Automatic annotation (TrEMBL):
Top-rank taxon: Bacteria
Predominant subcellular localization, coarse grouping: membrane
Topology class, membrane: Multi-pass membrane protein
Keyword presence, Membrane: yes
Native source species: Chryseobacterium cheonjiense
GO terms under cellular component: plasma membrane
Protein name from the UniProt record: Cation:dicarboxylase symporter family transporter
Single biological process term from Gene Ontology: dicarboxylic acid transport
Keyword Nucleus annotated: no
Subcellular location: Cell membrane
Pfam families documented for this protein: SDF (PF00375)
Amino acid sequence: MKGQNKLFIAIVIALILGVAIGGFVHLQYPESAEPFSKNIKLLGTVFIRLVQMIIAPLVFTTLVVGIAKMSDIKMIGRVGTKAMLWFISASLVSLFIGLVLVNWLEPGHVTTLPIQDAASAEELLKSSKGFSMEDFVKHIIPKSVFEAFATNEVLQIVVFSIMFGIALANLGDEYAQPVVKLFDIIAHGILKMVGYIMWFAPLGVLGAIAAVVATNGFEIFKVYAIYLRDFFFALGILWLVLLLVGYLIIGNRLFELLRRIKEPLLIAFSTTSSEAVFPKLVEELERFGCNNRVVSFILPLGYSFNLDGSMMYMTFASIFIAQIYGIEMTIGQQITMLLVLMLTSKGIAGVPRASLVIIVATCSMFGIPPEGIALILPIDHFCDMGRSMTNVLGNALATSAVSKWEGQLDNHGGDL
């Protein structure tokens, strides 16, 4: 754990340095803020790309090995059913909390935000217009597994890996064992790479934070203070609910789990990418005692279906935009919106700024001006920090809970 603590401290120092350097550039050299931001952001880009490089092979090998080792198709079905029940319940709770709190706090009624130029939202508006059931299906079922690997489409890789894993499980040990062993070695080799890549995390954090502060300064926090305050309060309530449920299931070991995932949480918060911590999260959950077969099966599914922070943000932001424009929505309309968001959000995991695309599509559906997305674009980065961290927590709890229900949560703590 000593190396982990060093990395955690390095990330915290990088976070503080990033804010300080960005603030200095913004205040002292405002004319250089744009080029500075563009250049220092490359540190974050290097880290994110290093992580993205190993996501597809890691998801594929761990998921195939996990399912093939289960060999019992009934067990695969049982674990999958428990996981989906958790995902659906958590998604509904997250959406509902967002809906209740945005109606209670009414951030759109108490703030007067400057109306942003809709041009900044033009790209999102375009990408949401093509949203349909056809796109939903295409996004889930891969046309080519190589294309899915090349574009890091996690959901498509998951679909292929599950089918391939089940096929291997039914081949019998004589045929399947050599392939499973090879993939197992590859998976552990990639997990070894995770350790090396994570030492780039402090540089990535420094670059990402410095770029945002240099461009936007500290003023952005003041302008949108109420919106951010209310959103993070709502996230805090969601965390309490998730942690309470986690405590009821895994007891005092919840605190050990939080200690183990503190780095992934901080990296997700700083880089606004829950994808960036996927490999590290796999490693830490196995060290925590979750069965590696359960981890390799549940976690990739969770990244596609269990984005609690993003779910809550969707209802919160959609109703906020309605409030800004003075559009009153009935309880019935809001419940309908919740159910629509529940369904539409499931097929778009992994798409850049997916939450915003879904919000635009939903606003159009309910007669809310979709251009209102331009109002929250300037602070979306800060909201994304909170929702990325919450997504990581939700998936860690889901994996631990299913492991516990399967009676496969060890107390060894520390060994892969």
